[in-house]
Every structure is written in C-alpha cells, then in structure tokens.
Design a protein that fits this description.
The chain has 148 residues and is an alpha+beta fold. Helices cover 32% and strands 39% of the residues. Strand 3 and strand 4 (92-105) form a beta hairpin. Residues 1-18 have low confidence and may be disordered.
Length: 148
C-alpha cells in the first residue's frame, strides 16, 4: 500500500514539474488554489485525443476573486507574444488570445498559446485561463479555446 501511494505521489510530482511553462501564469496553475471549492484546475500532458495538443493547463474560478491575480501575470506574459487578440469590456480585460514564441523540444517546434476569458460580457462570474502547447495552429488553438 505504501509503495502504491509513493508511486502515485512521484507521478503527480513528475507531472507538476513537466507542466512548468516558464511563464508568469505558472503561479496561478501552481498557486495552491485547488483548495478553493469554487476553483477547477486541470492539467493534461502526453498523448491526448486533442489533435496536436501535448500539454494543456486550465484554471477556472470566480472572477471577483481571481481576475485581479491573473491579469497582471497574463499581461507580462502577453508582452512577449508574437500575435495577440485582446478585448476589453468596461476597462477590464475580457478576452485574450496570445500566440507565444514557439519552443524547440527534441528538435521539434512546439507552438504555445495562452488564452483568457473573464466570464460572459456583462455577467462577469467566472474567469478561465488556458495554456496549450503542441503542433496545433493558432486557428485550431483558438477554436479549441472557444469550444470550452
């Protein structure tokens, strides 16, 4: 029983290390917010059924509590984007889609995307932050984000 628990703990630790993106928003994904019952955090890596995605991290939580924590970090990371689409509503960041500079892993180009949505317009109840990487195009990444 101890061996199984130790192996599970090591697997979770290895996944957490692998999920590090080198971005400021890592503080959100690794910030211990999963203790908040209103927060959803998901991380998937490896072979996924989503075409071209090799790593996906998702954070979803109450906008009133988390938007002010996420947006400053997102803006810093977005400053390095090679392409961006950003919209504001009432002076607040509502939607952001950043195409980040790709990285090279084992000789292969890996595209990276950072996506943000602060609830539906006029009803800012939840905030969603999504990081994706893989071989997928910006068009496919944006389509996937909008489907969530």
């Amino acid at each position: 029983m101890r061996r199984v628990s130790l192996l599970m703990l090591l697997a979770i630790f290895a996944m957490a290390l692998q999920a590090r993106t080198g971005l400021n928003v890592d503080k959100i994904f690794d910030g211990g917010y999963e203790k908040d019952s209103k927060v959803e955090i998901m991380m998937m890596s490896g072979n996924m059924p989503l075409n071209g995605v090799t790593l996906m991290q998702l954070f979803k939580g109450p906008a009133k509590k988390y938007a002010s924590k996420i947006t400053p970090l997102l803006k810093i990371d977005g400053a390095d984007a090679i392409e961006q689409k950003v919209t504001y509503d009432g002076g607040k960041l509502h939607y952001a889609f950043y195409t980040l500079p790709p990285k090279v892993v084992k000789g292969r180009k890996v595209n990276r995307y950072l996506c943000y949505l602060d609830g539906p317009k006029q009803a800012l109840s939840s905030v969603m932050l999504l990081y994706m990487e893989g071989e997928l195009s910006a068009w496919a990444a944006n389509r996937l984000f909008k489907s969530m």
